[in-house]
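Posting this for the archive.
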Amino acid sequence: MNKNSKILLTLIFLTFILSINTACAADTDNNRTTDTITQQSSIESTLTVQKEMTPTDTKVITKSNKQDVKKESTTQIDVNNYDEMVSQVNNIQQGSEKEFTINLKPGDYNATANMTLKQNNGINYKLIINGNNIELNGQNKHTFMEISQCSLELRDITLSNFETVVNGRGI
């Protein structure tokens, strides 16, 4: 055993001996105080209070650290053709909600107009279009959408025969 191990073992042993002596001294000290009338009276009043308590006197306090996280809800909109989609994109820009999802249902999606998605009243809109494997056809005469200070996410959709970008801000 090296010198450090011996010192550590000695310190542990001394700590153990001192803790036993402290416990014995505490027991002896308690015995002396119970002999006094003042201490006995004090103990009896405490016991009386404890006996009078009923379960209805108990109050449980719970604390929750769960933080309330406010999630912005996405408004879901179903459309059945291209004209309804154009109308809904225009309606989106009139409200105060920020995030929308347009779900394309089976129907006629041949383009009849150009669409624009732009910031309105300080709101930068986020639009998600779930195409459900539907093809939108621009018929070689329409741009799909001009976008300004907003975001557009296309999912599972095919765009064909749309005109090129307008002023560098469209699809």
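Confidence is low (pLDDT under 50) at residues 26-51. The chain has three helices and six strands.
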